[in-house]
Design a protein that fits this description.
With 66 residues, the chain is mostly beta strands. It has one domain. Helices cover 11% and strands 42% of the residues. It contains one helix and five strands. The strands form two sheets. A three-stranded antiparallel β-sheet has the order 3-1-5. Strands 2-4 form a two-stranded antiparallel ribbon. The longest helix is centred in the middle third of the chain and has 7 residues. The chain is elongated.
């Protein structure tokens, strides 16, 4: 498995009501497409999504993993 950063310009947490906001999550997946789908485990209505492969050395560990 590889590590991916999935980011978007508009989206929100699963079950949230209200405005959309930019955010991102770090996921482990076998492909960029699978990583994109995994982001939907914690977020909904994602728009303008970008999936970027990252290595363990450059992951921002200040944000907790979902």
């Amino acid at each position: 498995m590889k590590t991916y950063k999935v980011s978007w310009k508009k989206g929100r947490r699963v079950g949230a009501i209200g405005i959309f906001y930019p955010d991102s999550v770090i996921v482990e997946a076998n492909s960029p497409e699978e990583a994109h789908l995994k982001a939907y485990d914690t977020h909904d209505h994602l728009m303008f999504v970008d999936v970027e492969e990252v290595n363990e050395n450059n992951i921002d560990r200040q944000r907790p993993l979902p």
